[in-house]
Design goal:
Length: about 210
């Protein structure tokens, strides 16, 4: 289930103010609030905040659609370095210390889970023939798996970045949560397109 950003913020704020909560619980809530403000930011002329982490994943998918091969990989690598070296994100990670990697992974994984969940419900995505016919659930999961492999996992496997493993694990974890009992679809699609890539992908997940 997708958690509403504002409700999530309110819940963590209440934990921070709850004297009956343990110090660890209040500290965790404070860290989540810190990362909330990094991830969710105001959008001009809109009341709702924008999810910059979800936008990161959507842009990665679009780069894979509009570009190919080396061009796509180089642009994705550039975008990753720019996004994950944002001053506000680096400051938040420095503040939380040795918990930074865990908290960052949680936000990345949750953001792409929101993206996959949108794929399951968006009418434009789940229909064809000018929106006249609806894809079955299995067809939607297969479509999403193919796009995820082609536009995210394969480019990520070929980039030179310290964030490579974190991003791939976030994608795999979120896909399994969104498409219950179908997480092996990513491995199946990889085996069809590039068996060597499949081996590298599985090694990253095992590490």
């Amino acid at each position: 289930m997708i958690e509403d950003p504002q409700k999530r913020l309110l819940k963590d704020q209440m934990v921070c103010e709850d004297n009956s909560a343990s110090s660890d619980e209040r500290q965790e809530a404070a860290w989540r609030i810190l990362f909330w403000h990094v991830r969710f930011q105001a959008v001009r002329h809109q009341e709702e905040v924008g999810d910059t982490f979800m936008a990161f994943w959507v842009n990665m998918n679009l780069e894979g659609v509009t570009r190919s091969g080396r061009s796509a990989r180089k642009k994705i690598e550039k975008d990753i370095n720019k996004f994950l070296n944002r001053p506000d994100l680096l400051a938040a990670m420095a503040e939380v210390g040795d918990q930074a990697d865990r908290l960052l992974f949680d936000e990345l994984q949750d953001a792409i889970f929101r993206y996959f969940s949108t794929c399951q419900t968006d009418r434009q995505y789940t229909t064809y023939l000018f929106n006249l016919k609806k894809l079955t659930d299995d067809q939607v999961s297969a479509k999403t798996a193919s796009q995820t492999v082609d536009n995210m996992i394969l480019p990520l496997l070929d980039i030179d970045s310290p964030w490579q493993a974190v991003l791939i694990r976030a994608v795999a974890t979120a896909f399994g949560q969104a498409f219950v009992n179908q997480d092996d679809l990513l491995s199946q699609k990889l085996s069809q397109s590039d068996p060597d890539a499949l081996n590298r992908y599985l090694e990253i997940l095992k590490a």
